[in-house]
Design goal:
With about 300 residues, the protein is of the alpha+beta class. It folds into two domains: about 160 residues, Beta-Lactamase (2-Layer Sandwich); about 110 residues, no CATH class. It has six helices and nine strands. The strands form two sheets. Strands 7-6-5-9-8 form a five-stranded mixed sheet, covered by helices on one side. It has a four-stranded antiparallel sheet with strand order 2-1-4-3, with helices on both faces. Helix 1 packs antiparallel against helix 2 and helix 4 packs antiparallel against helix 5. The longest helix has about 50 residues.
Length: about 300
């Protein structure tokens, strides 16, 4: 007796293999961008296309596009704008249930990537010949659900890594404060102790310039530390802030013209300090008896 397999059985087995392969690809977070592109390529087995694209829209940052086959810069920008319009339509219309943007019988399909009732992107396919049917739409929706879960997991990992980095920064700051306190309790001289304090601060903050003004009964000195390669304009800006702060906090109209400046280079490890954004100046008046030391 001869048996014949129903065509639908072959479709189901082929879909199962494709979904298993997709699950295997998305089982790791290493090389996430390449894995998303691989999934788009695997999708072609069940949903024929001439172009497939995924647009992820994060709460912060620029939208990210993955597209098969690759496009040049101008074409990528145009496709990103098109998919952003689709995404905005989904958000504005309140489509949160994974519903399609396109109906069967057309040459393109677009389905939302939804995670916990939030639309996080769009999965799009198009073909130059032929049309899509309900089965194609269903398969694409399944793939979109898998990709949405993967992208959400990636975001959660990024948030956890950021939190871990913040905790490490806090730990380093506490450790540096402890080391600085030990130095100050065994203060020897301005030249030696303050230099070590500045070196410690430079390992915690990305320090470019430090200026110390020391006034004694009959003299004044200025010590300037700067990172290697620091520009003249940056040094002048730091000096200007120091003069303004000193005049405001200590002695208005004080003339720095006659103050000797000792220039020193920050240690190499200063460049490995924790990064800060923008140009920032910290001004600290340090009062000793009736005098003062200013360290911007």
């Amino acid at each position: 007796m001869t048996t014949h397999a129903h065509p639908a059985d072959g479709n189901r087995s082929g879909l199962s293999r494709t979904l298993n392969d997709i699950a295997h690809v998305l089982a790791s977070f290493d090389g996430a961008e390449e894995r998303v592109l691989h999934v788009l390529a695997l999708c072609r087995r069940q949903v024929p296309f001439d172009q497939a694209a995924l647009l992820e829209v994060a709460p912060l940052g620029a939208p990210r596009l993955a597209v098969v086959p690759p496009l040049d810069g101008r074409e990528r920008s145009e496709l990103t704008e098109t998919l952003l319009l689709l995404y905005n339509g989904l958000v504005e219309e309140g489509v949160h249930g994974g519903g399609p943007m396109s109906e069967p019988g057309r040459r393109h399909l677009a389905v939302p990537l939804v995670e916990e009732d939030t639309v996080i992107g769009v999965l799009f396919v198009r073909r130059d010949a032929g049309t899509y049917d309900v089965r194609h739409l269903r398969v694409l929706s399944i793939v979109a659900a898998n990709l949405a879960g993967y992208l959400t997991a990636l975001r959660e990992r990024a948030i956890q890594a950021l939190r871990a980095d913040e905790l490490e920064r806090a730990r380093l700051r506490v450790q540096r404060l402890y080391e600085i306190s030990k130095l100050l309790t065994s203060f020897q001289s301005v030249e030696s102790t303050v230099h070590e304090v500045v070196a410690l601060v430079a390992t915690t903050l990305r320090l470019h310039t430090a200026i110390l003004v020391v006034e004694a009964a009959d003299s004044a000195r200025r010590i300037v530390w700067h990172a290697e390669g620091e520009s003249e304009s940056s040094l002048r800006a730091a000096e200007a802030h120091m003069r303004a702060a000193y005049g405001y906090l200590v002695r208005p109209g004080f003339d720095f013209g006659g103050i000797e400046a000792q220039v020193r280079q920050l240690p190499e490890r200063a460049r490995r300090g924790l990064a800060t954004s923008g140009d920032r100046f910290v001004l600290l008046p340090l009062v000793v008896g009736h005098g003062s030391i200013l360290a911007p």
